[in-house]
Design goal:
Blueprint (H helix, E strand, L loop, with lengths): L3 E7 L3 E7 L6 E4 L5 H10 L5 E3 L5 H4 L2 H8 L2 E5 L11 E3 L4 E4 L2 E7 L8 E5 L4 E5 L2 E2 L2 E2 L7 H12 L6 E4 L4 H11 L4 H15 L7 E2 H7 L8 H6 L7 H14 L1
Parallel strand pairs: 3-4, 4-5, 5-6, 10-13
Antiparallel strand pairs: 1-2, 2-3, 7-8, 8-9, 9-10, 11-12, 13-14
């Protein structure tokens, strides 16, 4: 039985995620932008929080940790490489580690780029991957700490995940990402269709995340840097995939 997923809007455009195993009663939380919406979501469902998984150190992903830990007693897991700038950790993990969370295997993936030490959490049995600010809906996070080569290698790890998981990313940035993607691939029917869906969801005030990995592969420009049509679109037909990724990211930074 797949884990139940709850997407929780936080702050102005962040998301936290709850996952719950109805058979065991265990619940985990991925990232903690603020405490109140998360504690409210737990209360209304009658769930007890057991685990907190932190993807990276930015304040809009960790500021609510102390209050949630105080209220629930949940144990906190984060990257060993990032431990010096995370809240106190009960468990420190690294790329390639496997945890048991809510009765399922959870694989830790280093996805540095947006920050060094950023990790993603992959639950293959439930086809979920929590990517925060690495791979995002129609986008990727700004490269505050990593190089384009580091970030692109991280995205390739996520692009290769089996089973077409739901990509649970950290922000409601999809509409802006869509406008940028359209400057590169107006001839991509999958992108144009997705933009229509994103527009309709936002007009109703509904989240555009999570998204399927297959949709990202078909429409996300950062995952399409290897394609001849994308290289042509940025005027770099002979460039390496990493060079094209770097150019796309630079254009988005100026967009």
């Amino acid at each position: 039985m797949a884990l139940e997923l709850v997407t929780i809007p936080c702050l102005t455009d962040n998301y936290a995620y709850l996952i719950h195993n109805a058979a065991t009663g265990e619940t985990a939380l991925v990232d903690v932008p603020e405490a109140l919406p998360i504690l409210a979501a737990l209360q209304v469902r009658g769930w007890r929080l057991n685990h907190i998984l932190i993807t990276h150190h930015h304040p809009d992903h960790i500021d609510g940790v102390p209050a949630v830990v105080a209220a629930t007693g949940a144990k906190v897991t984060g990257a060993r490489a990032d431990a010096h700038r995370l809240p106190p950790l009960d468990s420190k993990v690294a790329d390639g580690d496997t945890l048991m969370i809510c009765g399922e295997a959870c694989h830790v993936i280093d996805v540095s780029g947006h920050s060094i030490g950023h990790v993603a959490f992959h639950f293959p049995a439930s086809a979920l991957v929590f990517t925060a600010d690495s791979l995002m809906a129609l986008g990727c996070g700004k490269l505050f700490e990593g190089t384009p080569a580091i970030a692109y290698a991280s995205l390739l790890k996520l692009a290769a995940l089996p089973g077409d998981p739901l990509v649970c990313s950290g922000h409601e940035y999809t509409a802006g990402n869509a406008r940028f993607a359209a400057t590169l691939e107006q001839g991509n029917p999958a992108l144009m269709s997705r933009i229509d869906r994103v527009t309709a969801l936002r007009e109703k005030g509904e989240p555009t995340v999570p998204s399927r990995l297959s949709d990202e592969l078909a429409t996300n420009p950062y995952l399409r840097a290897h394609l001849p049509q994308m290289k042509a679109a940025v005027g770099m037909p002979s460039a390496t995939d990493t060079e094209v990724f770097a150019e796309i990211r630079a254009r988005k930074d100026r967009f």
